[in-house]
Structure formats: structure tokens, C-alpha cells
Amino acid sequence: MEAAAAGGVEVEEGVTRVLLVDDSPVDRRVAQLLLSSDSCAGSFHVIAVDSAKKAMEFLGLKDGKEQAIDMVLTDYCMPEMTGYDLLKAVKALNPLKPIPVVVMSSENEPQRISRCLNAGAEDFILKPLQSKDVQRLRNCSTVRPNNAASPPCEAIAKRKPLVLQPSAAGAALPSGRRANFAGVTMVLHSSSVEVSQYVPLLLKLVVLVYAVLCVGELLHRWSSGGGCSLSLWCA
Q: Which residues pair with 101 in a beta bridge?
């Protein structure tokens, strides 16, 4: 079986060499674990970097030495150089045979999605990467697996990703905070429901603790005063 070199690592034929670009260590690790899982059956070989500038260096966009990469999977929001800037640079690297680029983002903004697709992105995926997104990545790859034929990526490029409509309460918030606001709202709502179920039990517990304290105080006065009087109950 033939093998191709990617960043000094030999990769078997039919394996998609993915350059993963994300400044978040958590999101980067999630994507690596997913694409290296048993469900992917060795379909991907991942090379991960934490910035668009390092991705450009790896691809040879700075020194002219092009690396063999089958796909770029990049985050949109990154410091210094964004995923959108990297997308344009990759597409300009080889206009006749451009490298497929898939953009990821935790924010589901229609303008951002359209901007990337119009610039040549094959797909736009919401983070964190999930198992259902693996087939989308396979469809966008120019590498065909040895055991199966995947459909071409033109349909993915023309398809508009799902855009969630913000609620009336979240519409006034900045777009970058809507997802966090929705998550916090759900947590607070579920927490309030759970707390309400335990209120009667908590009240009973408080009454029981108070009763125990009163009995303890009575016993203490009984033992120290040598007897019991009505004043004990009035104290």
C-alpha cells in the first residue's frame, strides 16, 4: 500500500491528512480524540497547531515549501490572525487545486457563516466538534477511503448550515454571549426546580435542628441549676 508523508509522518493511502488549527487546548483535544476514535476507523491523520500563523508556516505559505495536507480544519476566532484570514491564504496558495477548508466556531452567526462560505470554505461547523460532524468532514475531503466511496463536497459547499433563531430575551444580547446566556438560563431553571422540591424537607430539618438545640439547652440548665423550673421554658 502506498504511503504519503505529512509533516514527517507517513500516512497510508486513503487517510485524510487534517491540519487542525485552534487556539483552545480543550477544543483542539476534543477534535483530536474524535478524529482518532475507533468510529473514524483510521480515516484521519491529525496535525494540530494552536495558531493560524503556525498553520501558515506548516503549509509553507511563508517559505514556499508546501506541505502535503488534504484538509484544513480551523477555528474562526483566534488572536493575531483569524480563521477567516487563514481560509483566504489557503485558497490563494493553489487556486487550481485548493486545499479544502472547514471553519469551526462556537457562535452561530449567519453573517459569519456566509462570509466563510463565500470565501471558499467547504463547510462551517459549530463547536465543539461532534460525532455527527465526522461524515461532513469526510464529504469535504478529496481523499477517498479505500473501503467506501464518499459523495463529493460540492453539495456541502452549497448547503447553508443550520442557523438557530435567538429568543426574544437573547436577541438584545451581543451575539457572542447568546450561547452562554442560554446555557446559564437552562442551568438556573433546572436548579430552581430541584431546589423547590427540597424546600419542605429543608424546613423540617431546620425545625428539627432548632428542637435539638432547645432540648440541649434545657438539659444544660437542668444539670447546672440542679432542677427544673418554669423559667427554663420562658428563657
A: 72
Closest CA to 108 of 131, 77, 149: 77
Taking the C-alpha atoms of residue 224 and residue 226, their distance in angstroms, rounded to an integer, is 6
Distance from C-alpha of 83 to C-alpha of 89, rounded to nearest angstrom: 10
Please give the angle made by the CA atoms of 152, 162 and 130, to the nearest 5 degrees. Answer: 70
Give the C-alpha distances (Å, rounded to integers) separating 233 from 206, 217, 227, 228.
20, 10, 13, 9
Pairing between β-strand 9-12 and β-strand 123-126 as defined by DSSP bridges: unpaired
Model pTM?
0.59
| 73 and 117 fall within a common domain | yes
Instruction: Give mean pLDDT, residues 93-103.
Output: 87
**pLDDT given for residue 200 in this prediction:** 73
Boundary residue ending a domain (164, 185, 213): 164
52-59 vs 83-93: helix axis angle to the nearest 10? 10
